[in-house]
Specification:
single chain, 6-stranded antiparallel beta sheet, 6 strands, alpha+beta, 201 residues
């Protein structure tokens, strides 16, 4: 009788443990590599533009005014290194269209955000939230690429946890970004969407 009771209790404990492991937690931080420190934040880096679906069309990069300055490859997004002390953030988002004498361009907006980044770093450490509906569609306006910057200007490109299947950052991340002060905002042309009409003879 005693042996049967012990066996039954052991089986029950194993079942409970397995159930707990399989259920998981939407807020459990995923296994994300630590971000590599770069010399500076760059919203025009090829990998950042690709993440924002703003890759320049072939043949137009040489005509983009901001391409006069070389843009090196950006590291993959990752967790903030424990030794990295951030003093600001640089937010990269699609900037809509720009029009100049060459025509209509796609663009990227770079915003510098200053202030206490503790709340932002805590939000970035969260996992992605579970989706509330399987029918929601990704939102193009929710695309975001983010860097943290230290006092020397060095930067880490950080992984941003998603809110839902809509693809936007978690509300904790957006709230922390909104709490920072925007000290600079610049929009850069990326790819020529439509050339300006040729002048009439």
């Amino acid at each position: 009788m005693g042996r049967r009771l012990v066996t039954a209790l052991t089986a029950l404990c194993v079942t409970v443990l397995l159930a707990g492991c399989s259920s998981g937690s939407p807020d459990a931080a995923p296994t994300v590599p630590v971000a590599r420190v770069a010399e500076a934040a760059d919203c025009m880096a090829p990998q950042v533009l690709a993440a924002l679906d703003l890759t320049p069309a072939p043949g137009t990069a040489a005509t983009v005014p901001s391409s006069a300055v070389p843009h090196v490859d950006a590291p993959d997004p990752g967790r903030v290194p424990s030794t990295f002390v951030a003093v600001s953030a640089v937010e990269c988002t699609p900037g809509g269209t720009l029009v100049d004498t060459a025509g209509t361009w796609s663009s990227v907006r770079a915003r510098r955000l200053d202030g206490d980044t503790a709340a932002l770093e805590a939000a970035l450490a969260l996992g992605s939230a579970s989706a509330s509906s399987q029918d929601c569609a990704p939102s193009a306006s929710a695309r975001l690429d983010l860097w943290l910057v230290d006092a020397l200007g060095r930067a880490v490109r950080v992984w941003v946890p998603d809110e839902t299947c809509a693809g936007g950052p978690r509300t904790e991340v957006t709230a922390a970004l909104d709490a920072l002060e925007v000290t600079d905002s610049t929009t850069y042309p990326v790819g020529l969407l439509e050339p300006a009409p040729a002048p009439s003879p």
